[in-house]
C-alpha cells in the first residue's frame, strides 16, 4: 500500500514523494525529502531515497511496527527482506536466490540511516542504538585536517553492509570503435557521412572526456570552445535542465579535447543548421548540443531514456562484438582506466572526472594494475598526443 509517487513541480522539475495507505504523503518522509530538495540534492538522489524509504515503510507494515518504535532486529530483518523478498516471519526450507546485490542493499540502508539521523538532529528520540561514536576510523584514508580532531569521537553506524568493491567494467578500443562506426562513419568514396553523426559524437565525447551521460546531454553549444589555432576545450557548467539533468557535485570544470573530436562536433553543428535548427530556436549558443532530430519534438533536448533505447538497439545489432550489458557509463570507466594506465597522476584524473574527493577515484579504480591485457586500454592516450604539455598539466 506504500508507493513512490512522481511529482511535477511548478517550475517543470520532477521530484518524488512517498504515499502511505491513505494515498497521502507520509509527513515525516516528506519533511526529510524536502530537506534533500532544499539542500540541492539531485532529483535522482531524491528518487533513490524515496524508493528506499518506501521499502522501509512497507517492511514496517509487515510487522505492524511504527517507524519511531523500531528495534535493532528490525534493521537486520529489513536487510534479509531486501535480499530475499521473504517476510521476516517466514523461514525458507531451500536456498533463496538474492533479489538485490549487497551494493544495492547498502544504498537502501544508507538512505534509511540518513533519515533517522535527520530525525535525531530534529530532536526526536528514536533508534539511539543506530549510531555510536568512535575515536578510530576503519579506513586508512584520513582527511587533510584530521590531525586537528586530536582523537575526538565521531559518529559511526552500528548497522552496515559489508560489500566487496567490484572491478569497474570497461570497453576495449576495438569495442569502442565498433560502437562508434555502427552509429555513423565517413565514407571516403561517397565523401559523406553515413548514419548518425550525433550518436557517434555522443559516444566519442564520452570516450574522450569521461563525462557522465547527464553531463554530456546538459552541454550547450556555448560550452564548446573550438580550437581556432589553439587547444579546443569544453566547459562543464552547473545549470538547470528541462529534464532535471545536473552536473554531479555542482562543480564547474574545464576539459581539453582533441582536434578530431572538435571536427566531429563541427560536422554535427553544420548538419543541425542544414536541418534548420538555427531558424527554429531563438539562440543557437544556448541551445543544447544533443537534441531530437527525428522523433518527438524536433530540436528538443535529448532525454537519457532516448539514449538508453539507442544502447539497447546497439547491443542487439552488435551481439558478439561488444559486452551484452554495456552502458554509457562504461565509457567513463574506460576513460579513467586508460588515463591511470598511461601514468597520469591520480589527482589529475580525479579533477577531470569531476570527483569531489581524490579518495573516490582511488576507491573506484584501485583495481587498476600492470596487467598486460588491461594495458591495451592505454592506447586511448594517443588521442591526447596533440595536447600541449602546459595544457595537459592544467
Describe this protein's structure.
With about 400 residues, this protein is mainly α. The chain is built from 15 helices and 9 strands.
List keywords for this structure.
single chain; 394 residues; mainly alpha; hpI Integrase, Chain A; three-stranded antiparallel sheet; two-stranded antiparallel ribbon; 10% strand; disordered C terminus
Précis, in short:
The protein is mainly α and 394 residues long. Helix content is 42%, strand content 10%.
Largest sheet: 3 strands, antiparallel
Poorly predicted sequence stretches spanning 5 or more consecutive residues: 369-374, 383-394
**Taking strands numbered 1, 2, ... along the chain, how are they ordered across the largest sheet?**
7-8-9
Oligomer: single chain
The termini sit apart by 54 Å
CATH fold-level topology of the largest domain: hpI Integrase, Chain A
Order of helices and strands: EEHHHHEEHEEHHEEEHHHHHHHH
CATH class descriptor name of the largest domain: Mainly Alpha
* Average of per-residue pLDDT values: 83
Please work out how many helical segments DSSP would assign: 15
Count structural domains. Answer: 2
Structural class: mainly alpha
Number of DSSP-assigned strands = 9
Q: What coarse outline follows from CA principal-axis ratios? A: elongated
CATH superfamily of the largest domain: Intergrase catalytic core
The portion of residues forming beta strands comes to: 5-15%
Question: Helicity range of the residues?
Answer: 40-55%
At CATH level 2, the architecture of the largest domain is Orthogonal Bundle
Rg (CA only): 24 Å
Amino acid at each position: 500500500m506504500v508507493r513512490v509517487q512522481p511529482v511535477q513541480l511548478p517550475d517543470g522539475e520532477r521530484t518524488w514523494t512517498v504515499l502511505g495507505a491513505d494515498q497521502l504523503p507520509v509527513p515525516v518522509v516528506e519533511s526529510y525529502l524536502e530537506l534533500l530538495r532544499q539542500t540541492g540534492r539531485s532529483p535522482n538522489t531524491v528518487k533513490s531515497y524515496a524508493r528506499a524509504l518506501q521499502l522501509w515503510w512497507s517492511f514496517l507494515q509487515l510487522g505492524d511496527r511504527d517507524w519511531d518504535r523500531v528495534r535493532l532486529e528490525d534493521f537486520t530483518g529489513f536487510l534479509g527482506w531486501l535480499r530475499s523478498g521473504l517476510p521476516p516471519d517466514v523461514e525458507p526450507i531451500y536456498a533463496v536466490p538474492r533479489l538485490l546485490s549487497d551494493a544495492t542493499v547498502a544504498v537502501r540502508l544508507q538512505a534509511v540511516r540518513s533519515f533517522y539521523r535527520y530525525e535525531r538532529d530534529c530532536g526526536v528520540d528514536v533508534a539511539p542504538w543506530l549510531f555510536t561514536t568512535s575515536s578510530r576510523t576503519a579506513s586508512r584514508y584520513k582527511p587533510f585536517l584530521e590531525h586537528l580532531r586530536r582523537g575526538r569521537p565521531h559518529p559511526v553506524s552500528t548497522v552496515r553492509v559489508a560489500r566487496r568493491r567490484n572491478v569497474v567494467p570497461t570497453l576495449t578500443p576495438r569495442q569502442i570503435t565498433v560502437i562508434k562506426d555502427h552509429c555513423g562513419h565517413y565514407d571516403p568514396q561517397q565523401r559523406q557521412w553515413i548514419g548518425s553523426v550525433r550518436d557517434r559524437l555522443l559516444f566519442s565525447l564520452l570516450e574522450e572526456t569521461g563525462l557522465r551521460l547527464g553531463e554530456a546531454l546538459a552541454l550547450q553549444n556555448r560550452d564548446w570552445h573550438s580550437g581556432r589555432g589553439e587547444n579546443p576545450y569544453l566547459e562543464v557548467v552547473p545549470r538547470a535542465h528541462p529534464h532535471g539533468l545536473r552536473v554531479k557535485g555542482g562543480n564547474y570544470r574545464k576539459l581539453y579535447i582533441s582536434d578530431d573530436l572538435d571536427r566531429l562536433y563541427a560536422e554535427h553543428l553544420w548538419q543541425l543548421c542544414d536541418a534548420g535548427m538555427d531558424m527554429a530556436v531563438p539562440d543557437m549558443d544556448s541551445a543544447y548540443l544533443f537534441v531530437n532530430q527525428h522523433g518527438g519534438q524536433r530540436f528538443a533536448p535529448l532525454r537519457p531514456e532516448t539514449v538508453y533505447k539507442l544502447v539497447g538497439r546497439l547491443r542487439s545489432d552488435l551481439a558478439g562484438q561488444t559486452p551484452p550489458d554495456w552502458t554509457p557509463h562504461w565509457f567513463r570507466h574506460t576513460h579513467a582506466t586508460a588515463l591511470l594506465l598511461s601514468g597520469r597522476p591520480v589527482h589529475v584524473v580525479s579533477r577531470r572526472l569531476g570527483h569531489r574527493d581524490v579518495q573516490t577515484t582511488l576507491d573506484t579504480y584501485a583495481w587498476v594494475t600492470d596487467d598486460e591485457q588491461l594495458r591495451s586500454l592505454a592506447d586511448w592516450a594517443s588521442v591526447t598526443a596533440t595536447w600541449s604539455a602546459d595544457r595537459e598539466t592544467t
